[in-house]
Amino acid sequence: MSKACVALLVAVIAILGGICVFLEQYDGHVFDPLKLQEIAKEAIAETGENEDVTELVNVLLSKLHKEYGQHILDEPEWMFNNAGGAMGAMLVLHCSVSEYIIIFGTPLGTEGHTGRFPLADDYFTILHGEQWAFSPGELTKSVYKPGDQHYLKAGEAKQYKMHTGCWALEYARGNIPSMLPFGFTDTFFSTLDFYSLWQTVRISAVGMFTELAKGKI
After folding, report:
1. How large is the C-alpha radius of gyration of the chain?
2. The pLDDT value given to residue 27
3. pTM given for the model
4. 20 to 30 A from 57, CA-CA: which of 37, 49, 92, 120?
5. What is the rounded average pLDDT of the residues 23-28?
6. What gap in Å lies between CA 57 and CA 145, rounded to an integer?
7. In angstroms, what CA-CA distances link 195 with 33, 53, 79, 81, 104?
8. pLDDT for 82-93, tens place per residue?
9. What pLDDT does 21 receive?
10. What are the contacts of 67-72 at 24+ separation with CB within 8 A?
């Protein structure tokens, strides 16, 4: 390897390391996980239990727009998401370098690996149905019901199951770009669904650059 290549590699590593350190210390977050849980609970209470979650999603979107305004996408798009062996649909509501919010779920049920993200925390608030989860060493499952928030601390991982029909409001905080490979890998080694991959990349990139233009990391 030439000296120029070594120098370039060192520079790239240094830049990426600097970005990771910056995001670790960044405190300009727009969203608060407890406030998001509160908004989700309000939407659940207003719409009641119904197998058709359309009204619940619409009420939730209205409340999120009212609370966070321009930081919630005006016309979000539904798309498939395959990650960690699980499959569902997601609606991207916000994507920036340091935060993302999606609605994720399936009316059929699914299960898989949560992913292990050393640089980001994840908050999974159940809207409808149940999520089951466990960590190695736990011999019984944890059950999360509507209104419950499942917190996955940075660096942790679990097996999870969205039992039968289940929908959730998911919020991640930290180094969001570091999470993206987990969401892409199943496309290349399993589904070959490049259309959904393109949707994910396009919306994530547009969201990040739009937020940066507003001064939001």
Report:
1. 18
2. 72
3. 0.90
4. 120
5. 66
6. 16
7. 31, 26, 9, 11, 18
8. 999 999 999 999
9. 52
10. 67/35, 67/39, 68/30, 68/31, 68/94, 70/214, 71/30, 71/31, 71/211, 71/216, 72/101
d(C-alpha 62, C-alpha 85), whole Å = 32
Backbone phi and psi for residue 7, each to the nearest 5 degrees, phi listed first: -65, -40
Q: DSSP string spanning 140-202?
A: S-EEE-TT-EEEE-TT---EEEEEEEEEEEEEEEE-GGGGHHHHHHHIIIII--HHHHHHHHH
**Pairing between β-strand 110-113 and β-strand 120-134 as defined by DSSP bridges:** unpaired
Distance of CA 127 to the CA centre of its chain: 15
Segment holding 90, helix H or strand E? strand 86-95
SS (H, E, C) 28-71: CCCCCHHHHHHHHHHHHHHHCCCCCCHHHHHHHHHHHHHHHHHH
Cβ neighbour number for residue 41 with a 10 Å cutoff:
16
User: Rounded to whole angstroms, how far apart are CA atoms 82 and 146?
Assistant: 23
Give the C-alpha separation, 91 to 124, whole Å: 14
The pLDDT score that the predictor gives to residue 2 is 64
Percent of all residues in the chain with a pLDDT value above 70, rounded to a whole number: 88
Residue type, 98: S
Mean pLDDT of the chain: 90
The distance between the two most distant Cα atoms of the chain, rounded to a whole number of Å, is 65
* Alpha carbons 7 and 38: distance in angstroms, whole number: 49
